[in-house]
Amino acid sequence: MKKLKEFIIEKAIFLSGSLSIIFVVLIFVFLVKEGVLFFKYVPPKDFLMGNNWYPLSTPEQFGMLPLILGSLLVTIGSMLISIPLGVACAFYIAEVVNPKFKDILKTGVELLAAIPSVVIGFVGMITLVPWVKSIFNLPTGLTALSGSIMLAFMAMPTIVSIAEDAITAVPRRYKEAALALGATHWQAMYKVIIVAAAPGIFAAVMLGVGRVIGETMAVMMITGNAAVIPHTFLEPVRTLTATIAAEMGESIRGSNHYYALFVVGIILFIITFIINFVADVFLHRIKK
Amino acid sequence: MDTDTIKIVRMLAENVDFFYGSTHALKNINLNIFKNKVTAIIGPSGCGKSTFIRLLNRMNDLIPRSRLAGNIMLDGENINEPNTDVVDIRRRVGMVFQKPNPFPKSIFQNVSYGMEVNGIRDKNVITEKVIESLKKAALWNEVMNRLDESALCLSGGQQQRLCIARCLAVEPEVLLFDEPCASLDPVSTKKIEELILGLKKEYTIVIVTHNMQQAGRVSDYTAFMYLGELIEFGHTEKLFTVPKDKRTEDYITGKFG
Question: Do B101 and A174 touch (CB under 8 A)?
Fold first, then answer.
């Protein structure tokens, strides 16, 4: 009797554990199964390199380049903002701030992650977008720049939290050695501690990138969603994620458009998978 | 104090008390550290010898809720004055730690680091000094062909000599060794000891060790500490052969430790 109970519990745990992996595999299989049909009608080269995304015109055009560039631009923009800010913040929390306030600060930054992305999008839309419009004297404030700024806020908690862990994990003896040689605190930080914490900081940045690329709601609300090839940060863009979210509902099941969105999904999946994988490799390296 | 004493006393502790929170770790320590001599500090674990040596280059500043009373002088200056430049003190009083702690950088960069943070920019000067320091630390022959390799690839003993070279490169006056051989094998230990004997011509050396034989081999003066107090201080030979205090005698004859 006892044996049977053990057996059932063991299998149940095994099943729950495997389920998450099974789901990932199933989702990927489903995406590929639906997406692959698309290439019967549209050659991959036209898809990846085409300049025009007109899924509803006749003849329909599925050039994904504007979407890829849109995602790329918003991601680069938000990283330019969040990496320096996030790493500096992590250093402040790990090295500078009075230990009494350390926990409060870190929890505060991590709470930023708890804000739903729709709220971030909403706040950005009401406050940031009009500023961008008036500061740069633009016809619309719904631009890649607005998206980058708001997404930087979403990447910050991830970057700060993981980078701070990495900096705190740097053995004290490195810092002591640097100080004993007559380095100032700042010199010890930027020449020794940052080098020792580099893999962790890199992982933090990668996870931040993953968060930004996968983000949908906020970008959809504030980047303007124009599927044209952007030339500057001050133009509206449309990201891969926003495209799926905006168009999936209206596409006809089984149409080329429908399959095209699946391919967009596959590409997103591959990008985020690679990013998370790389981050994971670096995080494991620290643990050793 | 007359001028003759100032000449030979490089560092000096005067009525030094030190507290970690409410723990009274050092009790009224008075000690002279003589120029171009090796001073060993011995004593059982927890006697305060590491705490004391870390006061000499103000490493204990990093410890929160610690408190120091009394004076520590370097060349007649109080190193704990409010207007003292702690960075300058640490450059003048170099430290080699218990566990080798090279930076996760190349061998060359480990030695050049101290010069860079002290504002030396000239590449030729740096390179020359790196070579000179590695030679002084008796490491040059082993690493001359792989200066760009990571310092973490070196053996423990080599890493410790690299840490010594790193200290020498910033031209300190005093070298502090905090149990430098605690994690090393006998062969590496012997090399470090030979090195210390060679270095005393140019530097004033303080070494903390729990190994009495080591103190006997390398030092000119020995201080015996016990439970936060300095029990006895004198010429190494005398302290080991005719100790004045019963506790010193008990410790060096191995009755406790």
Answer: yes
